Amino acid sequence: MAAKIDPTQVTLLRQFVQIVSAKPEMLHLPELSFFKDWLKSLGATMPEPEPEPKPESKPEPKPESTKEEGMDSSSPKGATKEPEKPAPVSESSSELEESPESDLELDSTDLVPEDVIENQPMGDPEKEVSEEEIERAGELRSEAMAKSSDGDIEGAVATFTEAIQLNPSSALLYAKRASLYVKLSRPNAAIKDTTEAIKLNPDSAQGYKWRGRAHSLLGHWADAAHDLQTALKLDYDDDANDWLKLIKSKSDRIREHTQKQERKSREREVYMKKKRVKRARKQYESDKKADEERFKSMPHGSGGMGGMGGKPGGMPSGMQDIFNDPELMELMRDEEVMKAFQESASNPANLAKYANNPRVMKAMQKMQEKMGGLGGMGGMGGMEEGTMPMGAGPMGGFGGMDDDGPD
């Protein structure tokens, strides 16, 4: 029959195995050579030791320049060259387009592997607790503390669990059990208990203290600092203060890193917005130029658009207003509208086919408004404002106008 092993020794052994599993390179430490030899005797394969970092070579100091070296042959005798001023450092556009800064790397020597919470017994928060149950829970609490002092941590956890079942409204019982979970390297279990304790009593200093300690074991530096600071405000504790000192620099670095990420994110957002606006403006100018070229190349019947009003090769003043009207330019990109303009330019009677096309009629109407002052779009036979006679061409054949001007 195998000999029984002290539960405390089993717990310590479990913690040691967890640490070695997380950092197997520890097996190459001289003080663990006995353990490595034993593993090899069982046929285990050892990980390769990490190569020792090479010492950084310091650059050799440059000799001080002599006065002759600073002399310029083209300068007057005795004159020296002005030292070049370094260019101002600024973040390039490529840096702004890159993804946000990578995660901050911090020392993780004292961290423990995350524990998986399985069947962690919690009390019924809706239970009505009797005076007898409160008294019995207090007795169990004393028993649990005694077991903890004797090194029976697992037994103490079980006794605290009994007390919690009897009095689930006690924040202190949850905080005390959480402290034992921390000693067992079960930080997630401790966080669950302390969160329940803080829920029951928002002023639970013990709850914040042990939750902060559990967060620090998992590398949650910002959360750990927040909880430990809160615990110290509620009730000063030497242990909480010492733990806070250990992680304060790390939490400060995380805060600074987060602020830097947020700043770079805002700068990148502003930069990308400006870039989109610039691209859109460039596209608009390109489309506008293409529309102008296409409009000029259209057949416009008698006299042409370029010769309207006796101005060969010229452009009436209203035409520039057309090109500056985004809505009209959008209509002019419609193939049906362009087709109507081309057909009616060669034969004004063709416009009748598009009388029921609202986009064509709207384009004609806006053209008439823009060309106002040119005799109703270049002499469209006394056309009234807002109408488009079917017998008149929209651009060519304007009321007897020919290449030489109006009759």
- Biggest pleated-sheet summary: none
Q: Could you tell me how far the N terminus lies from the C terminus, measured between alpha carbons in angstroms?
A: 128 Å
Poorly predicted parts: 65-81, 300-315, 373-407
Measured as a percent range, the helix fraction is 40-55%
**How much of the residues is beta strand, in percent?**
under 5%
Q: What can you tell me about this protein's structure?
A:
This protein is an all-alpha fold and 407 residues long. It contains 15 helices and no strands. The chain has helices spanning 7-22, 33-41, 93-97, 131-149, 153-166, 171-183, 187-200, 205-217, 221-234, 238-297, 317-323, 326-332, 335-346, 358-370, 375-379. It is elongated. The model is unreliable at 65-81, 300-315 and 373-407 (pLDDT under 50).
Which helices and strands appear, and what pairs or packs with what?
Elements: H1 7-22, H2 33-41, H3 93-97, H4 131-149, H5 153-166, H6 171-183, H7 187-200, H8 205-217, H9 221-234, H10 238-297, H11 317-323, H12 326-332, H13 335-346, H14 358-370, H15 375-379
Question: What is the gist of this entry?
Answer:
With 407 residues, this protein is mainly α.
